[in-house]
Amino acid sequence: NRWQPRWSTHWDHRESRAIDAASGAVYAVRGDAWRELGGMSERRWMYGEDIDLCRRARARGWSIWFERDATFVHLGSSTVSQHWDDAARARMIARSEVAALRSELSPVSAWTTLGLLAGGVAARWLVFSAARRRKRAAVFRAVLGGYRDGILGRVDE
Fold first, then answer.
1. Measured between alpha carbons, how far apart are the two ends of the chain, in Å?
2. For every residue of 88-115, which 3-state class applies, written as one string?
3. For the chain, what is the total number of helices (H) and then of strands (E)?
4. 3-class DSSP state for residue 62?
5. Residues with Cβ within 8 Å of residue 24, at least 6 apart in sequence
6. Which of 39, 62, 132, 137 is most buried, with most CB under 10 Å away?
7. Kind and range of the H or E element at 64?
């Protein structure tokens, strides 16, 4: 657990802790903080607006806290699955990742990170294609397409 980053799902959820950001369905935000931050950014529609909110809060010196004792029910992807398949959703997430990388990191770091991510995704696409696991291969191919879209500034295709 100590070697894992503080972001998202890459840490042990059995303990409460300060985190950099969380990709999540539920947030509790103080009203004055929400108003000062201006809520969720509309320029990050679907996937990424939660991370952006955390980034803006951290920029003001505020902490982000994961509370392990908080309870909620999340019907994973119940809304998006009515509108998009896994590949389309993966493409949207990838576009959001590119936007976040480009806004959060220096150009060299963003491109290096994106290159490493794309290399890993391409390898997974090839492995799933070779194994004839078409649905999984389609998801990773869609991620690569989302990276390309994000780089080229295409968001509404």
1. 39
2. HHHHHHHHHHHHHHHHHCCHHHHHHHHH
3. 5, 2
4. coil
5. 50
6. 137
7. strand 64-66
